[in-house]
Amino acid sequence: MKEAGKNKTTKTGKASLEREGLRAEKICKTYGTQENPVYALKETSFQIPGGQFAAILGPSGCGKSTLLHVLGGIEEPDGGSVWIKGKDLYQMERSKRAVFRRRSIGMVYQSIFLLPALNIEENIILPLLLDGRRAREKQLLGLLRETGLEAKREALPSQLSGGQQQRAAIARALVMSPSILLADEPTGNLDKASRNGVMELFRRLNDIYQVTILMVTHDEELARQCDRILYMEDGQIIRDRF
Ligand SMILES: Nc1ncnc2c1ncn2[C@@H]1O[C@H](COP(=O)(O)OP(=O)(O)OP(=O)(O)O)[C@@H](O)[C@H]1O
């Protein structure tokens, strides 16, 4: 991901961005027991080029969250592979995968996990501190500005609206300058105005920072605002619309 203030690039014709995309190959994940297996992912394969903003759309229980967790390095698949920045995620040692995940993949969830005792700035920079790095004022200011939270820098999460809290969580997910942002129903708990604000923010971040975004949603209207929709059903991608 590019940092604020650095040269912008166009969305097309960037070979390096192609390499920074994401590839899923025949991912399988089964839950349950041998007698009663639940096939959550059935050899799911697809590729997202670097810089694309794609949605995964599908009915409840079709495997969207499972897929996102596997892509995010959180849940090991039973089979198949995930390639990010040219690296096979599940061929890495567990400790190396944890570091790679922290530095290369941002995650945003429906439930907003901000630490209540830390102010917004402290919440946003937390991943940097956990990685042994210091926050740079210029980068922090860029993120606060993009997310419209400049005035809330020292506020506690409880002093923010749901939409503002989600925007802070998005800033936190981006503070490590990841190449991929995975968002699981990020607008699921928000009212319509906040939902539109978050979508607008994703589009802007995708444009400015060229971060690849994969967003899980139930909402066809939101999915239509993305560059591409991957329709999922019963553990598989059944349709792919650009
Ligand atoms: N930890 C688990 N143990 C057992 N079954 C699970 C587990 N997690 C998910 N499943 C099952 O796997 C299938 C896919 O679940 P998943 O949560 O990925 O679907 P989803 O499309 O994200 O659903 P929703 O839109 O309701 O969040 C479902 O049948 C679900 O019940």
TrEMBL record:
GO terms for molecular function: ATP binding; ATP hydrolysis activity; transmembrane transporter activity. The keyword Metal-binding does not apply. SUPFAM superfamilies: P-loop containing nucleoside triphosphate hydrolases. Residues 22-242 form the ABC transporter domain. InterPro entries: AAA+_ATPase, ABC_transporter-like_ATP-bd, ABC_transporter-like_CS, ABC_transpr_LolD-like, MacB-like_ATP-bd, P-loop_NTPase. One of its GO terms (cellular component) is membrane protein complex. Keywords: ATP-binding, Nucleotide-binding, Transport. This is ABC transporter ATP-binding protein.
